[in-house]
Design goal:
This protein is α/β, with parallel strands linked by helices. The strands form two sheets. A six-stranded mixed beta sheet has the order 1-2-10-7-8-9, with helices on both faces. Strands 5-4-3-6 form a four-stranded parallel beta sheet. It has two domains: 219 residues, Rossmann fold; 89 residues, Rossmann fold, CATH 3.40.50.1100. The model has no long low-confidence stretch (mean pLDDT 96). Helix 5 runs parallel beside helix 6, helix 8 crosses helix 9 and helix 12 crosses helix 13. The N and C termini lie far apart (46 Å). The chain is globular, with a radius of gyration of 18 Å. Helix 9 links the parallel strand 7 and strand 8.
């Protein structure tokens, strides 16, 4: 289990190595939904997402010998960049196993942070390759199935509580589940009445399917454009956290996520990825339930999209 004390310890561990990201009140969304809406801008974190928090917390726990052995990770996007950045800052060799479908901007950024990239036909093959590199001696930094990683991601929750202690609802994306598990642990400790709502997109909704089946489910493929939600399965660790701490799961379409992506880009001047914009779509679905005195926090977990993707999505979904 993950405890709030673990998250507070992680906050001290990673302090000074990651941004303490802004949390702002959105006037346009507050007017639109008739309540108080706040945006946690983790899209402005180093590397463009929350991922360095967990990566630093994990890497700083390693012994000197483990650091010399180097690390290996699996990612279709943001974990790759977060782990590569943390490894470079700490002088640790990093290999990232990635699917061949990974967008070029993710590959370029990951290489730019100094990691070696190995490409594979599928995310499943990437996980298999990482396991072999672990057997050969590298330390495996799992993108979500690790309490140290989840504790690092949970530091976002501590910052939300510092800025909006009366938070009544928080919308959080789910990939593998470490972010929502960590943040929910912090929120439920500091604001027990806060409703935590997890959000996925159709075609990247492994947690919703896992909860519905009440057992671990594996997706044969990720078909959503929200690639950074593209975990093929959850883990027993994250599954249990979501069951215990998350009040509701919502699955939205890619079209709904893209609509909100362009809304927040045009109205708030903030660029986010579909894996973050889906939280706006979920909140919009529930906006009829909002009370005027609520404090709604929407966690915008990342902003790593290319201009080419934006153009494609605009033509595909907004025409």
């Amino acid at each position: 289990m993950l405890h709030n004390a673990d998250i507070k310890a992680a906050q001290k561990t990673i302090q000074g190595r990651v941004h303490r990201t802004p949390l702002i009140r959105s006037h346009s969304l507050s007017e639109r939904w008739g309540t108080n809406v706040f945006l946690k801008l983790e899209c402005l974190q180093k590397t463009g997402s929350f991922k360095p928090r967990g990566a630093f917390n994990k890497l700083l726990s390693l012994s000197e010998q483990e650091r010399k052995q180097g690390v290996v990770g699996v990612s279709g996007g943001n974990h790759a960049q977060g782990l590569a950045y943390a490894a470079r800052e700490l002088g640790v060799s990093a290999v990232i196993c990635m699917p061949e479908t990974t967008p070029q901007n993710y590959l370029d950024a990951t290489r730019g942070y100094g990691a070696e990239i190995q490409l594979f036909p599928t995310i499943h093959a990437a996980f298999d390759a990482a396991a072999k590199l672990q057997q050969a001696g590298r330390v495996y930094v799992h993108p979500f199935d690790d309490p140290l990683v989840a504790a690092g991601q949970g530091t976002v929750g501590l910052e939300i509580l510092e800025d909006v202690p009366n938070v009544s609802r928080c919308y959080i994306s789910i990939g593998g589940g470490a972010l929502i598990g960590g943040v929910a642990t912090a929120l439920k400790a500091g604001a027990p009445n806060c409703r935590v709502i997890g959000v996925e997109t159709e075609g990247a909704d492994v947690m919703a399917k896992t909860i519905a089946a009440d057992q671990l489910v594996t997706l044969p493929a990720i078909t959503s454009i929200a690639r950074t939600l593209g975990s093929p399965s959850a883990s027993p660790f994250t599954f249990e956290m979501v069951k215990r701490l998350v009040d509701q799961l919502i699955v939205v379409s890619d079209a709904q996520a893209v609509k909100e992506l362009f809304y927040v880009l045009e109205r708030a001047k903030i660029q986010v990825e579909p894996a973050a914009a889906c939280c706006l779509a979920a909140a919009d679905q529930q906006s009829g339930e909002f009370k005027s005195d609520e404090a709604i926090v929407i966690l915008l977990c990342g902003g790593n999209v290319s201009s080419a993707d934006l153009c494609t999505w605009h033509q595909q979904f907004m025409a």
